[in-house]
Amino acid sequence: MNANALVARNIRRLRVGCSLSQEALAVDAEIDRTYVSRLERGLENPSVAVLERLASALEATIPDLFLVPPKGEPPPKPLRGGRRPTKR
């Protein structure tokens, strides 16, 4: 797995693990939501500064973004879509 795909997978894994939407992560990391989407699809090469902001927003470290998954581990599942029910 190349470094770009590794970072993409780990950003999504950490984001889903924190139950954050792409938009919430983007706000916390002070980057554009579409950039988060492109990062998770491996279409962008983030700078060290962006990796630092993402790691901070995900309460992780930069090395966490480069962890190699165990062999055979499936990709992270997406978050449940749609609006959350409101309490009345």
TrEMBL record:
It comes from the Bacteria. Gene3D superfamilies: lambda repressor-like DNA-binding domains. Residues 11-65 form the HTH cro/C1-type domain. PANTHER family: HTH-TYPE TRANSCRIPTIONAL REGULATOR, METHYLPHOSPHONATE SYNTHASE. Keywords: DNA-binding. CDD domains: HTH_XRE. InterPro entries: Cro/C1-type_HTH, Lambda_DNA-bd_dom_sf, TransReg_Diox_bact_type. The keyword DNA-binding applies. GO terms for cellular component: cytosol. GO terms for molecular function: DNA binding; DNA-binding transcription factor activity. The keyword Protein transport does not apply. SMART domains: HTH_XRE. Residues 67-88 are annotated as: Disordered. This is Helix-turn-helix transcriptional regulator.
